[in-house]
Design goal:
The complex is a heterodimer. Chain A is of the alpha/beta class. Chain A has a single domain, classed as Alpha-Beta Barrel (TIM Barrel). Helices cover 49% and strands 7% of the residues of chain A. In chain A, the strands form two sheets. A five-stranded parallel β-sheet of chain A has the order 1-10-9-8-7. In chain A, strands 2-3-4-5-6 form a five-stranded parallel β-sheet, with helices on one face. Chain A is globular. Chain A starts with 26 loop residues before the first helix and ends in a 9-residue tail after the last helix. Chain B has one domain: Cobalamin-binding domain (Rossmann fold, 3-Layer(aba) Sandwich). In chain B, 39% of the residues lie in helices and 17% in strands. Chain B is built from five helices and six strands. In chain B, helix 4 links the parallel strand 4 and strand 5. In chain B, helix 2 packs across helix 3. Classes of the chains: A alpha/beta, B alpha/beta. The interface between A and B is large, with 42 and 29 residues.
Chain lengths: 530, 157
């Protein structure tokens, strides 16, 4: 075997695979039919024969008003779920009028300062028929806004469908301003999961998100290793608390991973992840209901693979990556805009993104049967190898006392640091070939693409004006009372969600609530491992 | 033998842009090339960057941003350093539009490294500018201590 034929995760790949490579495979135990434990071939019996994946673009820009128009457009194009990208100000827990936000409101997402922004953003959209993903930071503020907005429109919280990001791995990878430390984030995240288990059973209260971590340069095995360690940590925390039975607690866990370039490794990664999650839930925690052990996943094409040079090449890369997600059996898919290495996606790029999934669904024929790769000597062997290596990472994190502790002491950020240097270094030397960048590079720029320019200047003014007016009109005594109650509950170690929802309902702002988090826990400076 | 003075660089990220991968990578590339590197971390205002640059006695400020506010920050920081008479050079990287390039160059922000720039190009550009513009004509000053004081707003590496 040539030594240089390694998968991106460093797994040696043979020139050809034979029955010899999977001779120890036990069909019932290791694979089984889709919808049957250990779910290697898919979490649901009918998979895409019953229902295709949800097409879900992460989007949002400028203001809630303009984002509302955008979502209406997406709905008309046949998108079957919304996926809300808040702007950096919102992600950092700051209101539009926060001086630290400078002029960056609405830059790379939609700003939400209060319930009012959420109401505007979803006005006239069929939220009773669709589900919504919220890239909500820890603390459940946007989730509260969404649930209250739905309730005010006559949809009981118990019926609302959607997902909150709510994941500390994602937020620690993003390293945002105005953030509490990983152990405090664990507390807030588990509070939301507990609350939803009791009051919003159709809401996916946690989306374990390794996407951003992966785009920091780590490989597929490390990605799934971190995601699984993260899942374990939430369960361990609830085990300590003992407030909600574990089967109820984990039932709505979902995952969000990247899909990178290597088609088979990425598809196998998802297959391996399903088997590992099943083992964690049933073998490690003894949870009997197999429905709790289903690894359900949203995937997104990996932004770090998209190149600035010859941007149309990204259309092909994204198509490969979405195909890998489909072959791996993802439940929900986001195809990036081909121009995202340059700007926020243009309308044309947005259309292409939705069309990419539709072309694979309707024209390529890959959905004609479930898990079409299953049984291949190569695929099953690679799935096994990935699983083996993922368990090693899980053990490594465990030895440090869990993921929050590993983040706290800088281990995770050092992993990113080494990965960035390693990955970019290999692109510099050509060891990782990138067409149009380090191989077959042209001497001149062959074409230009349209550039999307948001108008954040106008957004900031508009958002500040709305917020000012609202702060005048709301019942400020009531808001003060709600915030005091939230602080009290936070300090007492009670579940913060009831007080958060009450505060949001009375138009307390995101910034006011997040300032309380910082007041109680202090701001966490993320490790800079350079 | 008198050891040659090392180039000191402040790698800085102005504004709320959170794309830090490029900045942290460049910080390491420059350090591995033998320069002394100070990294500010993110969310820096222009004033913070300028005051850290002066406090750390750097030769060059290397700015990184992928946000639309990039042009505003880069030109502002270059102007502030110039107005204070520091002689500190400014280079920049990120997704820089063709339209912005002449304005940035005029403001004294050079390099303008886009995605996929070979490491060597970045290293030699900084070396050339420092040797010509900072060490060539300007009177030599005393060699700084090898280890800089650690500041709360910055991280030494």
């Amino acid at each position: 075997m040539a030594q240089d034929n390694l998968s991106p995760s460093g797994i040696p790949i043979k020139d050809i695979y034979t029955p010899e490579d999977i001779k120890s495979l036990d069909y019932k135990k290791d694979l089984n039919a889709s919808g049957e434990p250990p779910f290697t071939r898919g979490p649901y019996p009918s998979m895409y024969r019953g229902q295709a994946w949800t097409a879900r673009r992460l989007s949002g820009f400028n203001t809630p008003e303009e984002t509302n128009e955008l979502y209406k457009e997406e709905y008309k194009l046949g998108q079957t779920g919304f996926s809300v990208a808040p702007d950096m100000t919102t992600c950092s827990g700051m209101d539009a009028d926060d001086p630290r936000a400078a002029a960056e409101v609405g830059h790379a997402g939609v700003p939400f300062s209060t319930l009012q922004d959420m109401e505007i953003c979803f006005a006239g959209l069929p939220i009773d028929k669709m589900s919504t993903y919220l890239a909500d930071r820890i603390g459940g503020v946007l989730t509260s806004m969404y649930l209250v907005m739905a309730e005010k429109r006559g949809i009981p919280m118990a019926q609302v469908r959607g997902t909150s990001a709510n994941d500390l791995l994602a937020w620690s990878a993003l390293n945002l301003l105005n953030q509490v430390g990983p152990e405090a984030e664990l507390r807030y995240a588990v509070d939301l999961i507990e609350w939803c288990a009791e009051h919003a059973p159709k809401w996916n209260s946690l989306s374990i998100d390794s996407y951003n971590a992966r785009d920091n340069g780590i490989n597929a095995v490390q990605e799934i290793g971190l995601a699984m360690s993260n899942g374990i940590q939430y369960i361990e925390e609830e085990k300590k608390r003992g407030r909600v039975p574990l089967d109820k607690f984990v039932r709505r866990f979902s995952f969000n991973t990247a899909v990178h370039n290597d088609i088979f490794e990425e598809a196998c990664k998802l297959r391996a992840a399903r088997r590992i999650w099943y083992k964690i839930i049933t073998e490690r925690y003894g949870i009997k209901d197999p429905n709790c052990a289903k690894f359900r996943v949203h995937v997104q094409s990996s932004g770090s693979t998209h190149t600035y040079q010859e941007p149309y090449n990204n259309i092909i890369r994204i198509a490969f990556q979405v195909l890998a997600g489909v072959l791996g059996g993802a439940q929900s898919i986001h195809a990036n805009g081909y121009d995202e290495a340059i700007c926020l996606p243009t309308d044309q790029a947005m259309l292409l993104s939705i069309r990419t999934g539709q072309l694979i669904q309707y024209e390529s024929g890959v959905t004609r049967t479930i898990d079409p790769l299953g049984g291949s000597y190569y695929i099953e062997s690679l799935t096994n190898e990935i699983e083996k290596k993922v368990w090693e990472i899980i053990d490594e994190v465990e030895a440090q006392g869990g993921l929050a502790k590993a983040i706290l002491k800088g281990w995770v950020h050092r992993l990113y640091r080494d990965a960035i240097v390693n990955y970019e270094g290999k692109i510099q030397t050509g060891e990782i070939p990138v067409v149009g960048v380090n191989i077959h590079r042209l001497d001149k720029v062959p074409y230009e693409v349209p550039i999307f320019k948001p108008d954040p200047k106008r957004s900031t003014a508009r958002q500040i004006e709305k917020l000012k007016k609202l702060k005048k009109e709301r019942d400020n005594a009531k808001v003060k009372q709600c915030l005091a109650k939230l602080e009290e509950d936070t300090r007492k170690g009670l579940n913060v969600m009831p007080a958060t929802i009450e505060a949001v309902r009375n138009y307390a702002t995101l910034g006011e609530i997040c300032a309380l988090q910082i007041k109680v826990y202090g701001e966490w400076k993320h490790p800079m491992s350079i | 033998m008198v050891e040659k003075r090392k180039i000191r660089v402040l790698v800085a990220k102005p504004g709320t842009d959170s794309h830090y991968r490029g900045a942290e990578l460049v910080a390491q590339i420059l350090r591995n090339a033998g320069m002394e590197v100070v990294y500010t971390g993110r969310y820096q205002t222009s004033e913070m960057i300028v005051s850290t640059a002066i406090a750390e006695d750097v030769d060059v400020v290397a700015l990184s941003s992928l946000a639309w506010s990039q042009e505003k920050y880069y030109t502002e920081i270059a102007k502030m350093l110039k107005d204070k008479g520091t002689g500190i050079l400014v280079v920049g990287g990120g997704i820089i539009s063709e339209k912005a390039k002449p304005k940035l160059l005029k403001a004294g922000v050079t390099g303008l490294y886009g995605p996929g720039t070979p490491y060597e190009v970045i290293i030699s550009h900084i070396k050339d500018r420092v040797e010509k513009e900072r060490w060539g004509t300007a009177p030599k000053k005393a060699a700084p201590k090898k280890t800089a004081t650690k500041k709360s707003s910055s991280k030494k590496c």
